[in-house]
Design a protein that fits this description.
heterodimer, A: 358 residues, alpha/beta, Rossmann fold, 7-stranded parallel beta sheet, 12 helices, 41% helix, B: 474 residues, Cholesterol Oxidase, domain 2, 4-stranded antiparallel beta sheet, 25% strand, globular
């Protein structure tokens, strides 16, 4: 366990129950899952982890003898059975397995994000899990209507394209499982996150910001809520224990949303502070028209089942996606302690330690 | 060449048309019902048999919505329409849908309370009942599997009446509403196809028909009417309106419940005389799981869907029954009347989410059937894996593709839609076609979306409501 992954220690006490000695984590080899599992090591007796392929099993299993890795496709009913085999009642389940940038077209969003959620929810209920914490997203809510608007827990659903529709349906499945009365669930909605164990696309982000090649759409005053993985892990762990949480959904992000131009300037500062001199302009200015064209192209392609990551990301950059974390503060005792610059530096350090060329 | 005059002309005699005919005739109106299909004695054919299919289904049960993949659909073409051939499951329109439709389409007098009052009335006129005694083995399979997995399931009520020995008779329109209409003076003309409607300004003045006589001769018949109700179902109602030059919001937005099937083999015989009345509701509103008619012919057709030899399994057909997963679909379709063709061209597009939902439904259906003791599962997927163990089920996810899934539906709706929002609807809140004073639609076409459950109850309640409105108005 490194300090980068440590969840912030200071949380205000809200009424809560003791954490479960046994936990089940899906998506354990993912960006968030890796951070979560490391935070759980040493804290829990058994950590049952689901990963999709064999090559991701060994690095996790080496972390701690308390980790038990199950390899399988989350869509497969037998995988779900094996994941919960012998887990026993009272476990906490963190469902973090999902596809965000599909390789095989938009169908994958629904197969994995909806189909996988249904299996995990179903097995968690049959196993008598104490609580299921479901990792959701801003995408079931689309984009804010104006740059000064923030989503709250009362905002209406308005799913954004294939990913948003799949995560929306997954939320409905989780909610209806709670309403059945035999599986308490909590939904945690995280926006764009950053932090250690990042996938290659995030290194690419650092490289382009460092060289002044990242596009800034419009004047850059559109805002983004972002979540440092350490903050997010704290939110998930609070959702597991807070007495008020079951049946609810919470936005978990850094303390406040940032303007996009502030994010880019901060990342460049963080790169410099980690000894990586930046070059070029702060960013490449891009007219809003270009982002709108990308968004249209993304929409048309997704309608035919195709997905092009670059178009999707560029289309989204035009918009404000911001949320208010007040309810998580009040009801979960969530206290995001890591700031943007601090979190980005931790993220950059992790890349360098793992031999990434930024 | 004949001429006939009536006060009210009802075109079609299914759940919408039969209700309309009975309500208006009993209110003292002079009613004539025309039905394209034949009158078939309801006791003549064994229920759910292939002989019944040939006699009562349009195209002998082999219609298809074109698209990728195409979706086969079945509809009745006989006096009583699809109520003569369906499984008779009865489910009121879910309350949240009534609320949603009311706001989205601006439908007046469409609160859950209003609809419930009409459903009460329909139920007092039909017999809606649960099975007395134990369910047949084919239905018990659903209950057993669901209970084992902790999935919610219900035994649906059906429009059946049961005698003291527990023998059920489906209360089809030919046994209920149509005799009532006739007793109140209505005339029913079977084998009479309406070619088009004659309009003058904002009125329909007549319907031009072709009537086939038992001997085979065809007579042209013109029926003059003060009021016309088109009740030909979600495919043929828009087609007739289009043939009559009425096209605004007519035929687009077709909805259905795309359905994928499994033929399941058990180590013991399953009954084949009835259709399962249990439904798994665990995955509602997205997916419903249930059972289909499984006489020898249906079992053979279901087995053939994998495209693999069926002889070995057919030798054991008495141990095989068919089950399905039906989805609420995001996609939609179109009905287009083509000059010179008797039947319209129907198209339907499934979204990627729909396909995924079908795959998911198939996998859940497989889990359920294995839990219930099935030993072999044949999916309706060309080249689909015949599954014998749970660890083989996951392969179905990637086998359910546009080119391999064999899909069907028995529920078609929404090809006009009712409501005051004229951009989205083809009729007002009570089925009156926009732009016409005396032309109304009163069938499944009016439902703004597929209801996720068997639509017969919703169609009948809405048709009764629209008749009340008509009687108060005209």
């Amino acid at each position: 366990m490194t300090t980068d992954n440590e969840p912030a220690a200071t949380t205000d006490p809200v009424p809560s129950s003791p954490p479960a000695p046994t936990v089940v984590v899906t998506g354990s080899s993912g960006w968030l899952g890796q951070n979560l599992v490391r935070a759980l090591v040493g804290q829990r007796e058994r950590i049952r982890c689901l990963v999709p392929t064999d090559d991701q099993a060994a690095p996790l299993a080496l972390l701690s003898p308390s980790i038990e890795v199950v390899v399988g496709d989350v869509r497969d009913p037998v995988t779900a059975d094996r994941l919960f085999e012998g887990v026993g009642p009272g476990a906490a389940v963190f469902h973090a397995a999902a596809v965000i940038h599909p390789r095989r077209g938009t169908r994958e969003f629904f197969d994995v994000n909806v189909g996988g959620t249904q299996h995990v929810v179903d097995r968690a209920r049959r196993a008598g899990a104490a609580r299921l914490v479901h990792v959701s997203s801003n995408s079931p809510f689309g984009v804010n209507p104006s740059p000064d608007h923030v989503f709250t827990e009362d905002s209406p659903y308005d799913p954004w394209l294939g990913y948003g529709r799949s995560k929306h349906e997954a939320e409905l499945i989780v909610r209806s499982a709670h309403e059945r009365g035999d599986l308490p669930t909590v939904i945690v909605r995280a926006p764009w996150f950053y932090g250690p164990h990042q996938p290659a696309r995030q290194s690419q982000f650092f490289r382009s910001v460092r060289r002044g090649r990242f596009p800034l759409v419009g004047d850059g005053t559109q805002r983004r809520s972002m979540a440092y993985t350490g903050n997010l892990v704290q939110g998930l762990l609070r959702a597991e224990v807070a007495d008020k949480a079951p049946g609810n959904a919470y936005w978990i992000a850094d303390e406040r949303p940032y303007e996009l131009r502030e994010i880019l300037a901060t990342v460049r500062r963080a790169l410099e502070a980690e000894g990586l001199p930046t070059s070029g302009p702060q960013w490449i200015p891009l007219p809003r028209l270009a982002a709108r064209a990308a968004e249209q192209a993304d929409r048309l392609l997704q309608r035919t089942g195709r997905y092009v990551q670059a178009l999707h990301v560029l289309g989204e950059l035009n918009h404000t996606i911001a949320c208010d974390v007040s309810r998580a503060r009040d009801e979960l005792g969530y206290r995001p302690t890591v700031s943007l610059e601090e979190g980005m530096r931790a993220s950059i350090r992790w890349c360098l330690e793992h031999g990434e060329q930024l | 060449m004949g001429d006939l005059t009536t006060e009210v002309l009802v075109i079609g005699s299914g759940a919408g048309g039969a209700v309309t005919a009975a309500a208006l005739a009993e209110a003292g109106r002079t009613v004539t019902v025309v039905e394209e299909g034949p009158w078939v004695d309801p006791d003549e054919h064994e229920p759910f048999s292939l002989a019944e299919m040939v006699a009562k289904y349009r195209h002998r049960g082999a219609g298809a919505a074109l698209g990728n993949p195409p979706i086969a659909y079945a509809e009745g073409r006989c006096v009583g329409g699809s109520t003569e051939i369906n499984s008779g499951l009865y489910h009121r329109l879910p309350e949240h849908l009534a609320q949603e439709w009311r706001t989205t389409y601006g439908i007046d007098e469409f609160s859950p309370e209003v609809l419930d009052a009409y459903a009460d009335r329909v139920e007092s006129q039909l017999s809606v009942a649960r099975l007395p005694g134990a369910p047949p083995p084919s239905s018990a399979v659903l209950e057993r599997g669901a209970t084992k997995l902790g999935w919610r399931n219900v035994e649906f009520a059906r429009v059946f009446s049961y005698d003291e020995a527990g023998r059920g008779t489906k209360q089809t329109m030919s046994r209920t509403m149509l005799p009532r209409a006739r007793a109140a003076g209505a005339t029913i003309l079977p084998d009479c196809r309406v070619v088009d409607l004659v309009t003058r300004g904002d009125r329909v003045v007549a319907a031009r028909c072709r009537r086939t006589h038992p001997g085979g001769g065809v007579e042209r018949l013109t029926i003059h009417a003060d009021h016309v109700f088109v009740c030909c179902g979600a495919v043929h109602t828009p087609a007739l309106l289009q043939r009559s030059g009425i096209r605004r919001n007519v035929g687009n937005g077709l909805k259905m419940h795309p359905t994928i099937k499994v033929a399941a083999r058990f180590p013991h015989p399953v009954d084949h005389g009835d259709v399962p009345m249990h439904r798994v509701t665990e995955f509602s509103p997205f997916i419903a799981i249930g059972g289909s008619a499984s006489r020898r012919g249906q079992v053979a057709m279901a087995l053939a869907d994998t495209g693999q030899p069926i002889d070995e399994a057919m030798a054991d057909w008495e141990n095989i029954s068919t089950y399905y997963a039906a989805i609420r679909s995001e996609g939609s379709g179109r009905v287009v009347a083509v000059p010179g063709l008797r039947s319209p061209v129907v198209t339907y597009s499934l979204t990627e989410a729909d396909l995924s939902r079908l795959a998911r439904g198939l996998v859940h259906l497989g889990e359920l059937l294995l839990a219930a003791g099935a030993i072999e599962l044949h999916p309706s997927v060309t080249g689909g894996r015949v599954v014998r163990r749970l660890d083989e089920l996951g392969t179905w996810w990637d086998q359910v593709t546009r080119s391999r899934a064999n899909l069907m539906t028995v529920h078609l709706t929404s090809s006009l839609r009712m409501g005051e929002d004229r951009r989205r609807t083809g009729t007002d809140s009570f089925g009156r076609v926009w732009g016409f004073r005396n032309l109304r639609v009163n069938d499944a076409s009016l439902l703004p979306d597929a209801p996720g459950v068997n639509p017969q109850a919703a169609i009948m309640a809405i048709a009764t409501r629209n008749c009340d409105h008509f009687l108060a108005d005209a």
